[in-house]
Amino acid sequence: MTNQSTDDHGDIKIRLLLADDLPAVAALHAAAFGPGRFSRTAYRVREGAADVSPHCHVATRATELVGAVSMTQIAVGKVASHWLLGPLAVHSSDTNKGLGQRLITAALQSVTSHATPQATIILVGDLAYYSRLKFEAIPHGQITMPGPVDPARLLIWRGPDGTREIPSGLVHAVGPSSHRI
Q1: Domains of the chain by range and CATH?
Q2: 18-58 pLDDT per residue, tens
């Protein structure tokens, strides 16, 4: 896994999230999503998990944090080898420049290199955006969230070759949490 990379202009670096980054990530989430973010089902799932996992990444320009993607270990049913992607946030001055895709790609590469071979990644998002990163719709009812989610927005990444089995059951977080970002 590469811990750091630069974009074409050399000014943005992608690296692993550190605990010291959490205040800046919280500020980025507040600016991007507002206070309503805490009521979303995906945020509710993350309440029971650690704020930093080995697959979370941030984007920085000099000393400024300009993007972040979180990855939370989850269980689907009784199998705890899966991950929940999100939130993904990019500073408003850096949107529509491919930075979100770069952050997701770093997370996918990390899971491919270091997670269990059957690990999948679940997210709630737009299929039109995430399909280019090999996410697909989950068959209706196969995976459920512990709150309301539009079933058309519940997506899965089944590994780099798209062949990992789709798990089934209720999603819940794995591990303790110190505080929420």
Answers
A1: 4-173 (3.40.630.30)
A2: 999 999 998 998 887 767 665 577 767 878 677 788 999 99
